[in-house]
C-alpha cells in the first residue's frame, strides 16, 4: 500500500517514499552489523572474505603430526585461511567429540595439508558443539599461544 502510494504519486507519496527508504536503510544497517559481528567471531575466512567459519573449538595438526586444540578466541584476530574445499560433517551424536574419530581425521589432515573438516554436532535438533579441524599450513604463523596438546588420541 505504501509502495502504491509512492508509485501513483498520491497525496502521501513523499511520506510513503521516506518511510520505505528509511526501513530499507535500517535493514541494510542491521545486515551489515550482523555480518561484521559474524566476521569478528570467525576463526577462519576464505581468501576473498565471502565464506567464514565460526567454531567452538579449533584443532590444528602440525607439520610433525602433533594435534593441538584452541578456544576460538585464539584465531579471531589472526584468522585461519579456509581451503577451497571444506568437508562439513553434521553428526547427531558425540562422534565428533570422541578421540578415536579425532585420530582418524587428524591422521588424514597430516597427510593432506589442504583439507579441512568442520563438525557440527547436533543434539535434539540444536547445535551443541562445533569443531574446526585444519592443518598448520593454513594457520597464521606463528600459531597462537595457549593451545593444548592432545596426547590421548586412540588408535
Explain this structure to me?
This protein has 155 residues and is of the alpha/beta class. The chain folds into two domains: 2-39; 44-149, no CATH class. The protein contains three helices and nine strands; from the N terminus they run ααββββββαβββ. The chain has helices spanning 2-7, 13-41, 99-111, and strands at residues 44-45, 52-53, 57-61, 67-70, 80-81, 86-91, 116-123, 126-135, 148-149. A six-stranded mixed β-sheet has the order 6-7-8-3-4-9. The model has no long low-confidence stretch (mean pLDDT 81).
Pick out its properties:
single chain; 155 residues; alpha/beta; 2 domains; 6-stranded mixed beta sheet; 3-stranded mixed beta sheet; elongated
How many domains? The number is 2
Low-confidence stretches: none
Average pLDDT, rounded to a whole number, is 81
Alpha-beta content class: alpha/beta
What order do the SSEs take from the amino end to the carboxyl end, as H and E?
Answer: HHEEEEEEHEEE
Q: What is the percentage of strand-forming residues?
A: 25-35%
Separation, N- and C-terminal Cα atoms: 66 Å
Strand order of the largest sheet: 6-7-8-3-4-9
Number of strands: 9
Helical fraction: 25-40%
Number of helices: 3
* Shape by Cα distribution: elongated
- The Cα radius of gyration reads 22 Å
Largest sheet: 6 strands, mixed
Amino acid at each position: 500500500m505504501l509502495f502504491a502510494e509512492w508509485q501513483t504519486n498520491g497525496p502521501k507519496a513523499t511520506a510513503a517514499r521516506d518511510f520505505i527508504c528509511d526501513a530499507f536503510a535500517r535493514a541494510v544497517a542491521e545486515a551489515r552489523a550482523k555480518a561484521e559481528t559474524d566476521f569478528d567471531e570467525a576463526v577462519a575466512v576464505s581468501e576473498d572474505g565471502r565464506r567464514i567459519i565460526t567454531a567452538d573449538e579449533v584443532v590444528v595438526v602440525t607439520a610433525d603430526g602433533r594435534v593441538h586444540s584452541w578456544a576460538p578466541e585464539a584465531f579471531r584476530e589472526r584468522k585461519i585461511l579456509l581451503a577451497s574445499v571444506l568437508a562439513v560433517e553434521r553428526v547427531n551424536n558425540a562422534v565428533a567429540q570422541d578421540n578415536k574419530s579425532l585420530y582418524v581425521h587428524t591422521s588424514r589432515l597430516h597427510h593432506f595439508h589442504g583439507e579441512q573438516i568442520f563438525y557440527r554436532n547436533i543434539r535434539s535438533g540444536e547445535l551443541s558443539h562445533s569443531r574446526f579441524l585444519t592443518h598448520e599450513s593454513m594457520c597464521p604463523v606463528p600459531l597462537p599461544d595457549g593451545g593444548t596438546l592432545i596426547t590421548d588420541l586412540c588408535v
